[in-house]
Specification:
Blueprint: H1 19-36, E1 41-44, E2 47-54, E3 58-66, E4 72-78, H2 90-97, E5 111-119, E6 134-136, E7 139-142, E8 147-152, E9 157-161, E10 168-171, E11 176-179, E12 182-183, E13 192-195, E14 210-216, E15 229-238, E16 249-254, H3 256-265, E17 271-275, E18 287-292, E19 296-299, E20 302-303, E21 313-318, E22 322-328, H4 340-349, E23 355-358, E24 367-369, E25 372-373, E26 387-395, E27 408-411, E28 416-419, E29 428-432, E30 437-440, E31 448-450, E32 453-460, E33 463-468, E34 472-476, E35 482-485, E36 498-501, E37 503-505, E38 511-516, E39 519-520, E40 527-528, E41 534-537, E42 546-553, E43 558-560, E44 564-566, E45 574-577, E46 582-587, E47 593-596, E48 598-600, E49 606-611, E50 614-615, E51 622-623, E52 629-632, E53 642-650, E54 653-656, E55 660-664, H5 677-686, H6 712-721
Parallel strand pairs: 12-13, 46-55
Antiparallel strand pairs: 1-2, 2-3, 3-22, 4-26, 5-24, 5-26, 6-7, 6-18, 8-9, 8-18, 10-11, 10-17, 13-16, 14-15, 14-16, 15-17, 19-20, 19-23, 21-22, 21-23, 24-25, 27-30, 27-34, 28-29, 30-32, 31-32, 32-33, 35-37, 36-41, 38-39, 38-42, 40-41, 42-43, 42-44, 45-48, 47-52, 49-50, 49-53, 51-52, 53-54, ...
Length: 735
Amino acid sequence: MTTERKTCLTPCRGAVCGGVLSAILLVGCMLACASTASAWTAVGPGIEYQEFTLPDPNNVFVARMERRNPAVTIESSIGQGRLSGGTETVRSQASRYEDAIGYWGYDWGRRNDVIVAINGDFWNTSTGVPLGGQIHSGWVAKTFSGASFGWSMNRNPFIQNAPTLLPRVRYMASGSTQYCNGLNRSRGTNELVLYTPQYDSTTKTDNTGVEVLVEMTRPTLVLPDTGPAVGRVRQIRSNLGSTPIPFDHVVLSATGTAATTLLSRVSIGAEVGISCQSGYSEPWMRTYAGVGAGEWFLMSGVVVGGQEVLHPRTAIAYNTDHVFFVVVDGRSSVSIGMTMTQLGNFCKDYLGATFGINQDGGGSSTMVVNGVVKNDPSDGRERAVANGMMMVAIQPKIQSTTFGVNDLIKVTTANTNLRLGPGTHFSSLISLAKDAQGTVLDHSLRGIFAKGYSWWKCDFAGTTGWVAENNLALVSSGGYPTFMQHPSEQNPCLGDTVNFSVSADGTGPLAYQWQKDGVNLADSERVSGVSTPTLTISNVGMSDMGSFRCIVTDSVGSASSYSAALFPPRALTTVLQHPEPLDAPPVPHGLNATFVVAASGDGAITYQWQHDGVDLSEDSRHLGVTSPTLTITQVNAAYDDGAYRCRVTAGCGTVYSNDARLNIVKPDFDEDGDVDARDFGHLQVCMTGLAVPVQDPDCMDARLDADSDVDQADVAKFMNCLSAQDQPYDVTCLD
């Protein structure tokens, strides 16, 4: 569906003069505004794009994404993939994350199709480091300060002054905790600093401290300390420094007293929990993507303004239906830029946004749609920036089954890169020679497809990393359990029962252990089959969402299945507002009657109104029969009296509203089919006189002329309808 905007945001310059000149300029402004409106154009699933030419003059470039469309999400981008100081153009950042895997859906492996990208936060031009914080694909990658924009795993955008979000380490064996002094920054004396993969390819530290490499089962989301992201210690490195950071690992780096504490609590294989709990339980909990920002120019539908200087602008705004990316060109004769107030007015009046915040502007302001720069950056070319935000269409998770756990493989192409993660955008650890032999390692993302290749985690002479499948060949089978069936992702409705199943083969008896987010499950009231090929979870709720896999063990060894997501349970179809009965006062014959319903549910919602249990069809008298509002025109006592309800259908079921009675005014008070002396007796009893409102509820139906009293006017209408006893009356007599 396309729509148009044709209202001017600001009057033409010069139109403030009086007289004929002012009128001519004002008309010119209106014509210019009307002639430059363009339609929204689909550029991806659930994502549309439009350009606005305003009479200021200003050129504005806008993309909007449907908040509730499950095919799309929002992700942040990082210049050169490193927050240590990398800068990169918006177009290059979009390319970097195109076809890369993320963590959307509470499971690694689904890929990005980058539809729209804009520049992000303000940044230090000397260091290339963003001034505010950042969350990337669920990883809390930089601490926040000041106003920020976030997008949660539950599809909720928000703008808020940021919490601290410093990580806390929980040593699972003892239950003891240790706070981090910093996140993805240079390590100081007697400090514990957490490094995530977004910092750089290594920790860039010297050799004076201790560094513990932890393999995580999920990103370090904003999570409560009671439910941290869990990982296992893979290496303990003393006085070595600059530890490589694989894509699904963190490094705990410490010096002095902090290092002493760290060493006393870890061992190889020990479980470690990482939580980045905010001072706010919501909305930061489980944020998927976020960046620091500048001024909050639109709040709850009120323009709050800010910096009142004309500049090129980049902004993020939203309302209940859409998230908007906005770029305004500036510093030229064809587009002069906007103040914060003008930006707020544009987002409110043109887009219908209720909240908005600006990002870095000036020469940084850039919008890329499907790989093409749409605006004219004021530098005359794209500027390299520190980070950005993207609207992303989610591509399915695809995994190869070419190799198995512990298979011996060899390199078929000289100078093959062994990388920190599954994708060409990850840094190379070493270059492998042709015919170099290695072993396929157990990982739930074995054979994951990203950046045009399937990737395998392998060990080559003690160095582990990811290799593209097209550069590998099988030498011999490892003999570990193999899977004929891996679990499938589940997208249930709230309260459903879900099953995850595997089928495996191996040597000798097989043992099964199901895990959620890398942690062993135990049978409970709602969870069963944790040590069988099929895991069952009943009465699914929000606490069940996560990544599930099964560890299968035979007499040779253990192998994990591929992981599968249990997405946040979809909302049940619910009637929020039931139609009201129209019987107090009754609807006069010949007028209109309107019933309204409001509902919520998963995905698209459809409506069907019924009269006495029978579906209505759209016609000249029944309007909106498949919408939330039903209007019956020229109500007719012979046909329209009765019960009305709406059938509401969405992704998680069908429900009915309550019946609402349409009680049409009619002179046959005793409803015996005639209008006779007995009906007149009722009218007499109910007489109040002119301008005296009826008080008796039983007499409301006597107001035949639909005013508040029962007087001679009602008697006149009654007499026009009078018939003999047992003789039908004319149902149109009140018209």
